[in-house]
Amino acid sequence: MHLWVTRPIEDAAGLRAQLIAQGHEVTTEALIGIEYFRDEVIDLEDAQALIATSRNALRALKGHPAEDACKTVPIFVVGRATARLAEEMGFETVIEGPSTARALLGLILNAAEVNDGVLLHLSAENVAYNLCEELRRLGYHVFQPILYRSQPVEVLSETLQRNLSSGRIDGVLLLSGRTAEAYATAMIKHGLLQAARNLTHFCLSDAVAAKLSPLQPVTVKISAAPNLDEMLAMTASSAAK
Fold this sequence. Notes:
By secondary structure, this protein is an alpha/beta fold. The chain has helices at about 10-20, 55-60, 65-70, 80-90, 100-110, 130-135, 160-165, 175-190, 195, 205-210, 230-240, and strands spanning about 1-5, 25-30, 30-35, 45-50, 75-80, 95, 120-125, 140-145, 145-150, 170-175, 200-205, 220. It folds into two domains: about 1-30 and about 155-240, Rossmann fold; about 35-150, Rossmann fold (3-Layer(aba) Sandwich), CATH 3.40.50. The longest helix is centred in the N-terminal third of the chain and has 13 residues, at about 10-20.
């Protein structure tokens, strides 16, 4: 299959290599752009731990005045990929949790003490699940420095539009609700509804697939669990067929 990877450029290369290894042809073109706020204040006084629910939060620390100091504070992260990046960046204590912010909550509740100091969630401007609000409701003292913003990309390159219109692309990978929403908007904007209906949409979750409602009917395959390993299991099965 010829697959379109929609992830931001920083995350696309590794996924592209894995898909090629499965036997797929791959086009990469992001539907989400990332803007980092490296002048945002990160106050580590009395901090017991950091929280990162995205690799972009860690990338935003690169070059930040507080980068080195942050690496000495324990950090809770979602999933293996985020943990690996934290380790590569030199964080001294990385506490790896499940692959979603909602699932990470339980780990934080078991490992962090309500009265032991501040939790700092290195956050995006907009979040799908408000982890900080839930932690505060449970009595934790939480700060939320906003380190990056994700913006939808709604204009597709002419080359990608031609490849979609001609049927050269067989499937698209959608790993977040915002990405799926940007995809649906872009396909409608460029008059590619019929092209969308000829694609297989590999979605990370039911919530991601739900964002495709403006394009229905379309072919959707949903990951058995919301993580990259299960997504790759789906694409491997499609390659075998």
